Amino acid sequence: MSTTDEKPFDLLVRRMTWEADDVLSVELVSPDGKPLPDWTPGAHIDLHTGDLVRQYSLCGDPADTAHYRIAVLKSPESRGGSSFVHDELRPGATVTVRGPRNHFALVDADAYVFVAGGIGVTPLLTQAREAGARGRPWQLWYAGRTRSTMAFGEELTALAAHGGTVELHPKDEHGRMDLRRVLGGLPEGAHVYCCGPQALMDGIAEVCAELGAADRLHVERFAGVVVPSPEGGESSFEVECSRSGQTVTVGPDESIVDVLDDAGIYVDASCREGVCGTCETGVLGGVPDHRDTLLSPAEQEAGDVMMICVSRCASKRLVLDI
Ligand code: FES
Question: Which one of 40, 190, 247, 304 is most buried, by most CB atoms within 10 A?
Fold first, then answer.
């Protein structure tokens, strides 16, 4: 897990392409032709879409420093992100982005099993390519509603010629994907990467737990998980800012990042749902109550960083490195 202090920057929309029903890919380039910041498979960028900031996985080629590619599904429940891209963004427009950052990096493993649901295929596409480049065997299982809704199917099938296997699983042809079959032959030492709808990620987590492989599962979420409030409701707690010496009180219905902002202590925040990592902050004292979906159990236990947009305090007071 790394903390970055990168600033937003502008990119030019060079091309938009229909990749599948309701899926547009967007190719972004630097307006002055300078190389774009490096990234690794699994990385995402923050894209400013009107008043909102949304996270999209990079799904191009990391070796190509002239272009970024993202793919955006038009969601009927869109709160502005995907409808902005589909209905307003056009080639020639300038967009503001930040990143890339990677909380879904490919660890070194003997083999990889990738499980994609719908647009969740985007980070896995680049990871499958990387697995092949590392000379490791890989499988990619890709579920979608219908074949016409599944972006990058042909690209993946071509990729499978380089050391992997790809199984496309349109639901209207094959029914629901059997996750026990997907992980039934999980090779020893293989790591599982999953991105897609919540139900798919929950199902894969359940099967991994049954197989004793929970510590080899990596998931990428683009929406926060709703954590139920503890019995009796949330409590207030104090946050001491070690650098400024200021102390603030965070009420039951407030977030740390908002209270700090009100006190004139600005911390970068993007998703505000605990999924992007922008607000990651060092912890110098106290016990964080982690509510994000980024930190691994080991990172949570270490307790030296936390996402202050959603996470709270399990003790009376936190001391943060801000
Ligand atoms: Fe995205 Fe906190 S702002 S994790």
Answer: 190
Question: 276 CB under 6 A from ligand 1?
Answer: yes
Inform me whether the pLDDT recorded for 7 exceeds 90. no
Topology (CATH level 3) of domain 9-101 = Elongation Factor Tu (Ef-tu); domain 3 (2.40.30)
Mutate to test the pocket of ligand 1, among 2, 53, 278, 294 (most ligand atoms within 8 A of CB): 278
Q: Which two tokens stand for residue 281?
A: 């902050």
* Ligand 1 center from residue 69 Cα (angstroms): 22
Cβ-count burial of 185 within 10 angstroms (0-12 exposed, 13-18 middle, 19+ buried)?
exposed
The confidence band for 119, taking pLDDT boundaries of 50, 70 and 90, is very high
Choices 3.40.50.80, 3.90.25.10, 3.90.550.10, 3.40.50.700: CATH for 111-220: 3.40.50.80
pLDDT digit string, tens, across residues 247-262 = 999 999 999 999 999 9
For 237-320, CATH number?
3.10.20.30
2 class by beta-carbon count within 10 Å (0-12 exposed, 13-18 middle, 19+ buried): exposed
Mutate to test the pocket of ligand 1, among 53, 276, 305 (most ligand atoms within 8 A of CB): 276
